[in-house]
Specification:
Distance between the termini of chain B: 65 Å
CATH topology of chain A: ABC transporter involved in vitamin B12 uptake, BtuC
Largest sheet of chain A: 2 strands, antiparallel
Strand content of chain A: under 5%
CATH topology of the largest domain in chain B: Rossmann fold
Shape of chain A: globular
Order of helices and strands of chain A: HHHHEHEHHHHHHH
CATH class of chain A: Mainly Alpha
Number of helices of chain B: 18
Radius of gyration of chain A: 19 Å
CATH class of the largest domain in chain B: Alpha Beta
Distance between the termini of chain A: 70 Å
CATH architecture of chain A: Orthogonal Bundle
Strand content of chain B: 25-35%
Mean pLDDT of chain B: 86
Largest interface: A-B, 22 and 26 residues
Strand order of the largest sheet of chain B: 6-7-8-3-9-10
Helix content of chain A: over 70%
Number of domains of chain A: 1
Shape of chain B: globular
Low-confidence stretches of chain B: 507-521
Oligomer: heterodimer
CATH architecture of the largest domain in chain B: 3-Layer(aba) Sandwich
Mean pLDDT of chain A: 91
Radius of gyration of chain B: 25 Å
Low-confidence stretches of chain A: none
Largest sheet of chain B: 6 strands, mixed
Helix content of chain B: 25-40%
Structural class of chain B: alpha/beta
Number of domains of chain B: 2
Number of strands of chain B: 22
């Protein structure tokens, strides 16, 4: 009995990491973008474009690496469009992000039509990390995953180091906090915002490809099912910190996975209610996060969402 | 001094800068020597900041040339200016609030390229700042620092970049008198080390105190450059304004004893949810100007807002002529007879895109004659606007033109006229002359004094001690949301006020006790 309970917990936690990973990539991308002062609300659309591009390329070439690269490029392109609209043309960032969400949703549906129901020749499979996987519980949860999950661990640590310990990281943050100051010190505000918006879009695209190449793995129209929006909420929850974003992503992944498992166990809770859980949780997190910071936006880059214009 | 002088570190020749509709700099020639403090004196709009923004690489001149140490340079960006050894400390500091002092100072530097060793940077900053007596903690976050400390960070930032020509834009505007003296000592130390300082100001006493030479700008032209020993405050004032100044103000009348505003133990929260006012008690009598002195951000704005109903009072009460107006809505407060000249005159005081007429009736459209049932009587509104514009000599191109097209002085005159026309019993004026030129300042002062003599109680919040000395019958000093003391006109002492502004409560209690004595009656 105890062993089955243990196995259940382990499997839920492992599923939490897997379910959290696409959200984590997207959230990390958004943290990078917002730290430079650009609000990109197009994550949902960008993830879908990433998912479909990755899937199409992998189906054609049989190469997972090519699929992930394609997803990153596609995400970067959408983000570049966002950067052009908001940084150069100074379009309202919310409006631009929302239109690109619609655009991404539509384009992904169109491009994906021929491959609905088509199986991929290859997909990401768990790779056991020798040694580390032997750690009780945690080994199975964290080190019996696929390459993209491991890459996300490295990414989280690398981003943390980049933000807080390097000069380009400091410059990126100064652009998000006080572009006037950055500009006066010779930091190119426009180039910086372009660069990090595009990098953020690439990470979001990779997050999308995780869904179609590892998590599902298949292409279904609108397969993100709101994960892009959850990732945006997560950025606030994470206070723009990559380590906390990781924690939050697994929390969401856990709720997602738990709902699924409980259903499998044959619980009497209606399945609709369980499917609602991540979204209800998102709303709860936002209420919590904004109630705490109503008087002063804790942690938000001060110039977030404000286009920069030289006087 | 002649041109081509070896001691000349910066030379600007025939520099011209034009903005749409304005000739900001008209063939200005300006020279700075090594190891001198050079004051750039002029009224607002004389072109001082424009000229220095050109030298700091923010603006490009339309004509003219700039030489640094005898070599022609193109200063296309702040980075070029820094490379040429020119650094500018702006009036609005360019600092990232959430960063530490050290992070701000290293920001934008080319070295080290990637990984930052903050410890080493902090040590270097500590060494540099102690050389010049610029006390800063490299690890403190900017938002934790006072304005004076932030200014020191800005100066260290420029020194760290190797600037040997330092431009300071009205540096004392945000400082207490004591902090200003510390700054002057620092400037002298830097001067002795061979650096040059350009000091933008419109205050004559500062020129006399700290400058070696002074260049006077007026209407975008360089009028003259003088050695300090050849200058007198009167001469400089006349050069700056271009005419004799010092007109007489309307005579003062004794304040009568009727207490109009009584604030007792008021506490209120600031925007960040922390206490911005802590048990403030003040009184203003009819026909009295009570000045509120203090460094920006010590509760002045919040004080004006609680009185005018824009901010909630947490504790205490506010009485206006015996009626309780604590936590009433702004409309009720207006109806009780409170006029308000807010700090942000084009944001809170007026609607920039509405016409002169619409702005004039903003507070009177509910009552006759401007209101006619549910409608606005257009002719009455127009007549009222025309009357105010004429009576208070507001220069407006047309009554239907948006108010944002008026100059700062004229929009402020109109705002004050609107408030006066409602016959208030109390006027709350926040920085009423900030950013105005001498002429407009005089006009505003005259209007305020006329109101006082008509028996209006005036609460005058100002950072300009000269203005308070000229207008206030009593001065209360705010520090960290507390009243540090109240001085009567005959007790005026700039030293003591300065100490109180810096938070030294020991300064005195006699002003307070005299005040309390009054309150009993």
């Amino acid at each position: 009995m105890e062993q089955t309970a243990m196995a259940f917990v382990t499997s839920v936690l492992a599923a939490a990491v897997a379910a959290g990973t696409p959200i984590l990539y997207a959230a990390l991308g958004e943290v990078v973008t917002e730290r430079s002062g650009v609000l990109n609300l197009s994550l949902e659309g960008t993830m879908l474009v990433g998912a479909v591009s990755g899937f199409l390329v992998t189906v054609r070439t049989g190469s997972l690496a090519a699929g992930v690269v394609a997803a990153a490029v596609a995400g970067g392109l959408i983000a570049a469009l966002h950067a052009f609209l908001t940084v150069t043309l100074k379009v309202n960032q919310v409006v631009s992000g929302l239109s690109l969400t619609l655009f991404g949703t539509g384009v992904s549906g169109y491009l994906g039509k021929p491959v609905i129901g088509v199986p991929t020749p290859v997909s990401f499979k768990p790779v056991v990390v020798p040694g580390l996987a032997r750690i009780p519980v945690l080994g199975d949860v964290l080190f019996n995953q696929d390459i993209l999950v491991y890459a996300s661990y490295v990414l989280v640590v690398a981003l943390w180091f980049f933000f807080y310990r390097t000069r380009p990281g400091l410059h990126m943050q100064s652009v998000g906090e006080s572009p006037e100051t950055a500009d006066a010190l010779g930091i190119n505000v426009f180039a910086t915002r372009y660069a990090y918006t595009i990098i953020g879009g690439m990470l979001t695209g990779i997050g999308g490809s995780y869904l179609s190449l590892a998590y599902a793995p298949s292409w279904i129209e609108y397969m993100t099912a709101g994960r892009g929006w959850i990732a945006i909420a997560l950025v606030i929850f994470a206070v723009w910190n990559p380590l906390r974003a990781m924690l939050g992503a697994y929390l969401f992944g856990g709720i997602d996975a738990l709902g699924f498992r409980i259903q499998v166990l044959g619980a009497i809770i209606p399945s609709f209610f369980l499917k609602m859980m991540p979204y209800i949780f998102t709303i709860a997190v936002l209420i919590f996060a904004t109630a705490r910071s109503r008087n002063y936006r804790i942690g938000a880059p001060a110039a977030l969402g404000v286009p920069y214009e030289r006087e | 001094m002649l041109s081509g002088d070896a001691a000349c570190v910066v030379e600007m020749r025939d520099v011209t800068k034009r903005f749409p509709g304005v000739l900001a700099n008209d063939r200005i020639t300006f020279r700075v020597h090594a190891g001198e403090v050079h004051a750039l004196l002029g009224e607002n709009g004389a072109g001082k900041s424009t000229l220095m923004n050109i030298l700091a690489g923010l603006y490009r001149p339309d004509a003219g040339e700039i030489l640094v140490k005898g070599r022609r340079v193109q200063l296309g960006s702040p980075r070029h200016a820094i490379a040429a050894g020119i650094g500018m400390v702006h009036q609005h500091f360019r600092l990232v609030q959430t960063f530490t002092v050290a992070q701000n100072i290293t920001l934008g530097m080319p070295q080290p390229r990637f990984v930052l060793n903050m410890r080493a940077i902090e040590d270097e900053i500590a060494r540099l700042s102690s050389t010049y007596g610029l006390r800063v903690d490299p690890r403190a976050k900017i938002w934790q620092l006072s304005v004076g400390e932030q200014q020191r960070v800005e100066i260290v930032k420029m020194l760290y970049r190797g600037a040997n020509i330092l431009i300071l834009d009205e540096p004392t505007a945000v400082l207490t008198p004591q902090e200003a003296r510390d700054l002057f000592a620092t400037l002298n130390r830097m001067k002795q080390a061979g650096r040059s300082i350009i000091f933008i100001t419109h205050k004559l006493d500062e020129v006399m105190e700290v400058a070696d030479r002074v260049t006077v700008l007026r209407d975008g032209r360089a009028i003259t450059t003088l050695d300090r020993k050849d200058a007198t405050p009167k001469l400089l004032a006349n050069l700056m304004v271009g005419r004799e100044i010092g007109g007489t103000m309307p005579g003062k009348k004794e304040a009568c004893s009727e207490c109009v505003l009584r604030i007792s133990g008021v506490s209120a929260l600031g925007d960040r949810g922390t206490l911005a006012l802590r048990g403030v008690s003040l009184e203003v009598a009819a026909g009295e100007v009570l000045g509120i002195a203090g460094v920006a951000g010590n509760g002045q704005r919040e004080l004006a807002e609680v009185i005018t109903g824009l901010r909630r009072v947490q504790e205490g009460c506010i009485m206006l002529r015996g009626a309780d107006i604590t936590n009433r809505t702004p409309l009720e407060v207006i109806r009780c007879g409170v006029g308000h000249i807010p700090e942000d005159r084009l944001g809170t005081g007026m609607v920039p895109n509405l016409s002169v007429v619409d702005n004039v009736i903003l507070k009177s459209y509910r009552s006759r004659p401007v209101a006619k049932g549910p409608f606005i009587h257009a002719r009455a509104a127009r007549e009222r606007a025309a009357d105010l514009v004429q009576r208070f000599q507001v220069k407006a191109a047309g009554l239907d033109r948006p108010i944002r097209l008026l100059s700062g002085g004229n929009s402020q005159k109109l705002l004050l006229a609107r408030e006066i026309s409602a016959n208030p019993s109390l006027l709350v004026a926040v920085h009423p002359t900030r950013g105005l030129d001498i002429g407009a300042t005089e006009a505003i002062h005259r209007m305020l004094i006329e109101q006082r003599n008509r028996g209006v109680a005036i609460l005058l919040i100002s950072e300009d001690l000269e203005e308070l000395a000229a207008l206030a019958d009593r001065v209360a000093v705010l520090f960290a949301g507390r009243v540090m003391g109240v001085l009567r006109r005959d007790e005026w002492d700039i030293e003591r006020i300065g100490l109180m502004m810096a938070g030294s409560a020991t300064a005195d209690t006699t002003g307070c006790s005299a005040d309390k004595g009054d309150r009993v009656s």
